[in-house]
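Weekly structure sync, notes
Attendees: PL, DS, HV (note-taker this week)

Item 1: Low affinity Fe/Cu permease
DS walked through the input record. Source organism listed as Pseudomonas marincola. Sequence as pasted into the shared doc:
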Amino acid sequence: MQRNAWYSRFAKSAAHFCGRPRVFTFAAGLIVVWLISGPLFGFSDTWQLVINTGTTIITFLMVFLIQNTQNRDTEAIQVKLDELIRATQGAHNALLDLEELEEDALDAFKLKYQALAAAARAGLSSGDQDTGTPEA
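Item 1 (cont.): predicted structure, written out as tokens:
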């Protein structure tokens, strides 16, 4: 855990920094400067290559930083949801760690909950209340 801590801190900080309005404004400003400089360089291939290379490199690196941050956020949300299921009286503990199931098993759970939703909607149209904890 400790050996990757520096990367997690860096990825989180970089994603947070790059998501600020000032950074976006700076990047947009660079594009405007590049566009304005086009006539000075005769809209040459080198002029185009500069922006293409720069944006490609930045995009390539940002994908990894943002993905790391997104993965950690998603894992934290899953753990919090698992804790809510665990702590809620009457909740189905089989739903804990659901994200780790294979697609077929996940689809089976989804179908059960879609059926519950359909039954609740049908009940609403006939005047029933949409509360309670029906069995899955």
